[in-house]
Here is the input.
Amino acid sequence: MQTKKMYGGIEAGGTKFVCAVASGPGQIVDEIRFQTTTPEETLGKAIRFFQPFVSSGQVGAIGVGCFGPLDVNVESSQYGFITATPKRGWSHTNVLGILRGGLGIKIALDTDVNVAALGEFKWGASRGFDPSLYLTIGTGIGGGYIKDGRSLIGLLSPEMGHLRIPHNRELDSFPGNCPFHDDCFEGLASGPAIEKRLGAPGAMIPEKHPFWNIEADYIASAIMNYVLTLSPKKIILGGGVMQREFLFPKVRWRVRELLNGYVSSKSLLEHIDDYIVPPGLGNQSGSLGAIALAIQIDAEPKDSRV
Amino acid sequence: MQTKKMYGGIEAGGTKFVCAVASGPGQIVDEIRFQTTTPEETLGKAIRFFQPFVSSGQVGAIGVGCFGPLDVNVESSQYGFITATPKRGWSHTNVLGILRGGLGIKIALDTDVNVAALGEFKWGASRGFDPSLYLTIGTGIGGGYIKDGRSLIGLLSPEMGHLRIPHNRELDSFPGNCPFHDDCFEGLASGPAIEKRLGAPGAMIPEKHPFWNIEADYIASAIMNYVLTLSPKKIILGGGVMQREFLFPKVRWRVRELLNGYVSSKSLLEHIDDYIVPPGLGNQSGSLGAIALAIQIDAEPKDSRV
Here is the structure.
């Protein structure tokens, strides 16, 4: 009997950690979830979970999708550190170093959204579409871009949520709530921005509320900019705000209206329903993406991230 | 005596063609410039210029940076064609096919701005900086992004000039002149937009004119979006509008103000004078970029573009 190779994945969120051993979707051998407390306790739990799989040689590589801000520059002396974060006790934590020290196997780390993008590219809605873009619109807004099968990291990892877009002041007097940029995309369109503006969370706002057209305009403006800059072959919209499914047709319609025929691709002009889509892995993009990252570093002995 | 290998480059502009045989900057063996007339006449001249170098075996690969719109998708049946262009006689011209048919050697074609970006990356101001961005702000606005040594092409080639950015209607009542998007970046900030707004070309507008701060804000807004999306390690600003050198400090200052410390990179926070820079190759980015493209396809026998 042939046994499939197994990998470790950590979805390291600011609220909770998910650790899994798996060979792919639907092939999860073991999984544990726990609250994010102190770095020592939280990373210690993760190490203890993987230890038996590592000792027995069943798991030789682990991928980590981590909350940020994160130093993902492999040439930096702080590679794999969380940098300055409001999350108490976690500023300047060497997440990657602690995990490597505790487990002694190949481990790579990337931002949560890059890893989710990778999961969707390997097994989800953007499978076979390179380059592709995964955007999450929830508590914050972030994007992961996959090119040549890997997440894009340049000077730093992208911070696509903070795009500067036109603010419809005529219909939307909300000043924006981004502490850095006021009315950037995240400051106008994230879940907390919706709640602060309307006095109730997005999930409670009825579909007929006129605000949703404004929200769709902001999302579409950002998507227009991603299309013109990154030229992805598939765009996935995830996150809590996009749970309101009626937003998808609104956003697609507005993207086409804004581009106005300028990008003459059939994907946009004729098949936009297949171009801007929800995640294929539901809420597992992150944990499966971490497994996908482990598979990737295991396959490339000279991977610079390891 | 060792002879350096030689390559062909074509800067195929809508107004003029530059054809060169060279091994690199300052090593131009022969060069010809002529007006862009009909496709037959213009491409015929290019073929006749290169023919002796090809026959003698001196040139085995040619790179072309071409005006657009262009189909650069290697999987498309129209790869290497100019698509629908207002330039009379050139719509649906198989530029790549005609050149290949006439010369019978390896030829690759990319957009003019991608090729200029490649030239700057190989020999100019972004040498050693991967990923990097080259932006031209002139008659039109366009950008080329180099990642892993090659220009980014996705669904299509990027059209970064048409980014949707905040329009400062309070200080700038000009509605924008983009036929597709009115007040996109190009519609607000290109050379023709400046001239239409102020009644005189940008070259004639005095440095003290308050409009330049608005122009710098538009350029900085677009750069902020490129930084957050593409995370380049170097940004080059070329084109006619950027000939006004006083714009550089204005743009750099405004980029830092807009980002407001959010992207915590020394390149932005401490060394922005070295981060946003003019082209290193002056007005030769395009023709040298075409040579760089020829070198690239010559070195990779399995290059998908050939």
Summary: Residues 211-230 of chain A form the longest helix (20 residues). Chain A touches chain B through 47 residues (CB under 8 Å). Chain A has a mean pLDDT of 95. The radius of gyration of chain A is 20 Å.
